[in-house]
Sequence to fold (139 residues):
Amino acid sequence: MKKLFILPCVLSLILPLTSCTQAPNKSKADEVTGGMSLASFYYEEDVARYQNADIVLDGFVNTDPHPISDQIEAEERAKYEVTIEYTTISDYRDADAGMWRIDFFTLERTDDGLPIISNIQKVYLGDNGITQLIVYEDE
Fold:
């Protein structure tokens, strides 16, 4: 009789532990971002803002289709276009427009710890991996 009483107790302790070891569900966003954080942007708004900026619209390295499946691939593809020295990379995604924006820039800190961003190059890639636009800025 004691054995029958102990069995449910043991099972009630073991079964909850098995649910703790299950792999988390991966979302579509995790597949695209490689699990890394990814900010969004609106490609059309960016293009409108750069009417008088230092932009490049042709002569790109990435001219053949090479579909981008995640954030890491977008960064690697954008690096082919970089012509500046940089210390930091930021990634952005406009899923509706099928565009990636990868920002390369120099990030330094003042003595007070405030960030100073300079020497910025933004590379815009379509989901097909073809570069659409490059913007140079200096803040």
Notes: The longest strand covers residues 115-126.
